[in-house]
Amino acid sequence: MSVVFFCILDARYNEQKESVSNGLLIFLDDSENNEAGGAGEFGGLSQQCALALIQEAGPLIVSASLIVNISKAAKPLGSSRKLFKRYEEITHKAIDLRTYEESKELKEIWVDVIDFDRIAAKNWVIKKINDSLYLLLPQNYLQEKNVTKKDVTMFDEKGPLTETEYRLGFKVNHMPTVISVESIQCSGNHGFADYFMQSVWDTINNKSSVFVTNEEYREVKKYDIPTWSVYITGHGSVNNAIAHLSIVQFKEFLDFLQRKVVTKLLYYVACYGAGVNNELLYKDVEAGIHTTYSYPIITHALTDASTVVGGMILWITWWGKLKIAHGINYYDFFKKMVTSNENYGDIVAELMKYPDEFKKAQYLAQIKLPGLPWFSVVDEDAVVSIGSVLAKTRTAPLTIETFFAKKGKKAQPQALLLYAHTMPFEFVINTKNPFSDCPPAFISMVPGTALHHIKKISSMVHGADALLNAFMKIEELVPQKVFLIDQVVGLFPKHMWKHMIKPGLIAQSIVLTNVVIDLTETVNTIYFMYDGQLYKVLGMFTDENPAQRATDKDKEAYECLVHSFGSPVVTLKVMSDLQEKIDVTLVSPMGIAQVEESIKNVLATMPDDSMIKIPTMGGNKSGDEQLLFLDVFINVSKYRIVNKHSIVWIGTLDNYVNGYKLRTYTDVIIDMGKKDTKVFFKEQKYGTEDFRITCIHSSGFFETLTDDYMVTYKKMFDYFKAHTTLDESLEHTIESIEKKSIHTLLTPEAIEKIKAAEKKKLASPPVAE
């Protein structure tokens, strides 16, 4: 389907002077105040709003619930030092381990230190927009606009727009003034801040109760139409809300900023402010249209996950006064947002001023520039992107630090952003996250549930455990993301893997195969194959949380995950278990009835969509029984299990009559499909070079083939082998050692053992392929 980019452009934007720049910070929430039906905690929105108030950052629009949460509480008892000690005792506990009483006590401490009632009376003018929404104007901002407090507090609900309103861009004189913060009450429990858009734009009367619109400026032709830089924050959820607005309401706000005012910038901070929610906001899936806007839009989010900006920390001076240390300077942020001319990195940086250990990739901001349909990360050096074009055109190994180098400087990204589903090449990861010693994070940028298939990941710098952990750097990820990696090669972390390494083998690197990483909302799981065993790790792979051998239940889960990739032949049910059993039980001579029963048992045991190879089967050549395998083939062709597809490949079958080998059947393929079972085989008469290729259908029809059926099955088996081979072959191991000249990988004793095993293998009689 072709995709059309639909851009909403407003020619009026270019007609207006940009001499007046206005800004606004919006904080919407009803979930943190128990009076509004919330949790009754001093959460992230309360802290951020409190900081903006303390710092007198600029004009604010705030939910009544937040104002009440910041200003109303019983005064805690005790001295400052006693309160600070109690604050430390509570905050040292994880949030989910705190009792309700402890959360309430912590909130009271914060409210006492903030003392918003005093700050509001001294430094702010508060106007009531509606029962659930308030406009707060700091007096220092009014002075910058040459507006007095008296000008703002004047109230005439039905009067014309005033000069003060045209100057500020807010209809302040049509809003009553709040004399005391104590008079503000919660208006009830709101699932969304519907009260916000109802006042921003009344669709019935076609007017705004908050902003002076472009049309209202034009009517008087006296004032320059201002440009607006708007910041909005609130809680979000997937498929549901952004900044405490429903998806529909937020889209209405985007359209208002496009059509009714001149917007210079919109910046929003909300959990799940990217990924699925962005698809819902900006893309019409049925029409193939991406809606764009004439102003830049920044979301402080990278994917379908939570996000944060800096909060508050309490500290105490040596003379015993409680102070607030903050992670955000909203005053500086507001100034840069309003005055910066396309320096978006500087604006974003003001919200990222926290310690390096908190600078996580999921908090990276993205920007959607005017007229463009997509978002891109603001800090381009922080990420590298793997898109569909690169994935389709590359097969050679991709060395991150050199391929994405800029101006001779090696790339050192925080994250690798995966936009492609299949990456048929090797990632070479020898770079480190600039804020840690870890490899860059692997992050799925496909909105919603996604599957990614990677051929190989290798590193000479990072441990295999660190490479696996790199996929789990996103916290509170909601949609499921599944990664299938054929091979992971990393340094061997001996302190973690002692119980996994082969006796007598000392190596600097380790090879893991068939890696599946399953990220869900509740738990992250790693599966991988090593030394013929399936291992599982729940959560991060650490010394305290090592890999464990998978249980039968784990194997079933692993089977389902791999099967979800829809591969023609997949690694189901840990085929090594069945292969090991076959290698032990099917090598002994057996009668014709046992051969048929064994084949049917193998087919019944195998999982759906799987393939396995039996090197050889045959009877006791000293016996009198005639092994008439044609009868076996006919009977097996009639064997079928509903809705199951399994393939058994038997290398050779020797047909004996009275102790003499009469015929040899090679490459016997039993293809048990969901609707039909076919048996293919090559037949060679003893003592001749003549072959005949035959297919027996479940109907009993014998078909002589002219084309070699093995072309198809060898391709399938090669795929199967690539996804189920547990160790590299001896030849490959020796070759890689010689090629890389790294004999230090193995001790001399271990190398001799490998060479001895290789000689023994070469001395053994060949097995027909």
Outline:
With about 775 residues, the chain is an alpha/beta fold. About 30% of the residues lie in helices and about 25% in strands.
Structure description:
- Helices cover 30% and strands 26% of the residues.
- Helix 23 links the parallel strand 29 and strand 30.
- The longest helix has 16 residues.
- The N terminus and C terminus are likely disordered.
- The chain has 26 helices and 34 strands.
- The chain starts with a strand and ends in a 6-residue tail after the last helix.
Primary descriptors:
single chain, 769 residues, alpha/beta, eight-stranded mixed sheet, 26 helices, elongated
List the helices and strands and how they pair.
Elements: E1 4-7, H1 12-15, E2 21-27, H2 44-54, E3 60-63, H3 64-71, H4 80-91, H5 100-114, H6 116-123, E4 124-130, E5 133-138, H7 139-144, H8 149-153, H9 163-168, E6 177-178, H10 194-200, H11 214-220, E7 227-233, E8 241-242, E9 245-246, H12 247-259, E10 262-269, H13 276-282, E11 283-284, E12 289-292, E13 297-299, E14 312-316, E15 322-326, H14 330-339, H15 344-349, E16 366-368, E17 376-377, E18 383-386, H16 388-393, E19 398-399, H17 400-403, E20 415-418, E21 422-428, E22 441-444, E23 450-463, H18 464-469, E24 481-491, H19 494-497, E25 509-519, E26 524-530, E27 533-538, E28 548-549, H20 552-563, H21 575-585, H22 592-605, E29 610-618, H23 629-637, E30 646-657, E31 660-672, E32 677-685, E33 691-696, E34 702-704, H24 710-724, H25 730-740, H26 748-763
Parallel strand pairs: 1-12, 2-3, 2-7, 7-10, 10-13, 18-20, 19-21, 20-22, 21-23, 23-24, 29-30
Antiparallel strand pairs: 3-5, 4-5, 4-6, 8-9, 11-12, 13-16, 14-15, 16-17, 24-25, 25-26, 26-27, 27-28, 30-31, 31-32, 32-33, 33-34
